[in-house]
């Protein structure tokens, strides 16, 4: 029996044994490039170095005793009492691991910890046909996944508006980006169904769907359970892989994320292996430390590892040992307390931002309240009846008029896979103080009023 964490952090019981899709299933999904890649002859032998009694003359690893770093210490806030700090130190073998080349998929101890985390958060047990790879942020892994799955010119399904960081990936592969509508309940599975059911006969169907299910960047929206379930059902019916990019999972404003992830929910499917999940530590530990991780079918993760082995070789060993030292000292409960503090911080920021919107923008903008993440997505109402589509006008207002008044926000067009104009604007509320939020919203109000008067 498997337990999928549910809305209240307890568990949904899942009675059937997990049935991973067979390796051969993925052959049709791999891109030509991924199929052509060969494993690194040296890196693929790294695990054998650990064979007891074997003297390794294998890799050109430098001798870490020649390096100038002898110890590394840092202070970390207690996850339970943020006012208190503990000093953590790395030296000896632990530090040497951080100074040395390491396994392509990630530091074994960190991977081990992350397996436990995924089991706690998504009910997925290791050794059930899936694996984890660490990357230099989730962006690194998303890019590698895209190139492992998509051939130039392929059609891909992307929620729209979409995280701007994936548009250039699909664009450089000359993909046909099929936009799946979204609304306040996240991705619209009915729009996805229509697209797939009306797919022209004889044209290959898309192999991937890209979606950000919690506190979406840019819309701030969270996909409901019903939507998630229907998307998974469609993935089975129409044979595609869900690229679940979930960097805001830990920024859900509440005790526990409200809905199970796709990665958890697929345990209810007859077979598992259609979800490739991306997590990020950027929003909760440090963005600069560049640690993300992907969880999913072994074949796909191995394709990602082969890309890594031919590009950056691995994620920084040093940042991996630092992150592991911290996470190991906190334990899973400590990590949860920490992420709860962080999400409460953003929930307060959301409230401050929304208060200012209600004060200055009622009748001048429309928005939905985010439940996770760090973004407000709002539509500028540039005419009183808001009759016309003012997409292009909104872009001008936010890019020039609002900027002249001293506020910088992103026009929604930036998040449109095919460059379609939109009257929406993305505002990030992660950094701004209460006074500045108030000022910023007043400036947006003034820009809208000027545009209406013009
Ligand atoms: N996906 C989304 C939706 C994001 O918003 C971001 C960060 N802006 C990333 C991926 C990349 O995050 P990371 O720092 O883990 O590479």
From TrEMBL:
The keyword Transferase applies. It comes from the Eukaryota. One of its GO terms (biological process) is alpha-amino acid metabolic process. It holds the Pfam family Aminotran_1_2. Its cofactor is pyridoxal 5'-phosphate. One of its GO terms (molecular function) is pyridoxal phosphate binding. Keywords: Aminotransferase, Pyridoxal phosphate, Transferase. Residues 100-444 form the Aminotransferase class I/classII large domain. PANTHER family: AMINOTRANSFERASE, KYNURENINE_ALPHA-AMINOADIPATE AMINOTRANSFERASE, MITOCHONDRIAL. Belongs to the class-I pyridoxal-phosphate-dependent aminotransferase family. This is PLP-dependent transferase. It comes from Gymnopilus junonius (Spectacular rustgill mushroom). The lineage of its organism: Eukaryota, Fungi, Dikarya, Basidiomycota, Agaricomycotina.
């Amino acid at each position: 029996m498997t337990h999928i964490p549910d809305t209240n952090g307890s568990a949904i019981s899942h009675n059937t044994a997990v049935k991973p899709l067979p390796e051969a299933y993925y052959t049709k999904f791999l891109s030509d490039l991924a199929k052509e890649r060969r494993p690194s002859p040296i890196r693929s032998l790294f695990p054998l170095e650990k064979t007891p009694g074997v003297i390794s003359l294998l890799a050109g690893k430098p001798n870490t005793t020649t390096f100038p770093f002898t110890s590394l210490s840092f202070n970390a806030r207690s996850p339970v009492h943020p006012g208190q700090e503990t000093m953590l130190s790395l030296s000896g073998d632990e530090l040497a691991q951080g100074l040395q080349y390491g396994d392509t998929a990630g530091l074994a101890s960190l991977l081990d910890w992350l397996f436990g985390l995924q089991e706690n958060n998504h009910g997925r047990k290791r050794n059930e046909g899936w694996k984890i790879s660490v990357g230099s942020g989730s962006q690194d892994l998303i890019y590698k996944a895209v190139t492992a799955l998509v051939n130039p010119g392929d059609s891909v399904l992307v929620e729209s508006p979409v995280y701007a960081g994936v548009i250039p990936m699909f664009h450089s592969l000359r993909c046909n980006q099929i936009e799946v509508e979204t609304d306040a309940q996240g991705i619209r599975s009915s729009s996805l169904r229509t697209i797939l059911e009306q797919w022209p006969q004889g044209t290959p169907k898309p192999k991937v769907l890209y979606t950000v299910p919690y506190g979406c960047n840019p819309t701030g929206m969270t996909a409901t359970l019903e939507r998630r379930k229907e998307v998974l059902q469609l993935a089975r019916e129409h044979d595609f892989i869900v690229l679940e990019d979930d960097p805001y999972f830990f920024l859900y404003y509440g005790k526990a994320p409200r809905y199970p992830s796709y990665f958890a929910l697929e345990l209810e499917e007859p077979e598992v292996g259609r979800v490739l999940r991306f997590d990020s530590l950027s929003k909760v530990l440090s963005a600069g430390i560049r640690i993300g991780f992907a969880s999913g079918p072994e074949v796909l993760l191995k394709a990602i590892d082969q890309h890594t082995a031919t590009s950056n070789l691995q994620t920084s060993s040093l940042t991996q040992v630092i992150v592991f030292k911290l996470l190991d000292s906190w334990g899973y409960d400590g990590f949860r307390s920490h992420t709860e503090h962080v999400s409460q911080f953003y929930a307060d920021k959301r409230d401050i931002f929304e208060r200012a919107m209600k004060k200055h923008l009622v009748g001048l903008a429309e928005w939905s309240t985010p439940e996770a993440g760090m973004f407000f997505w709002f539509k500028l109402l540039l005419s009183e009846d808001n009759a016309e589509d003012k997409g292009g006008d909104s872009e001008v207002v936010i890019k020039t008029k609002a900027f002249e008044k001293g506020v910088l926000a992103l026009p929604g067009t930036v998040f449109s896979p095919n460059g379609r104009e939109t009257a929406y604007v993305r505002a990030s509320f992660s950094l701004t103080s209460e006074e500045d939020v108030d000022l910023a919203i007043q400036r947006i109000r003034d820009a809208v009023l000027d545009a209406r008067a013009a």
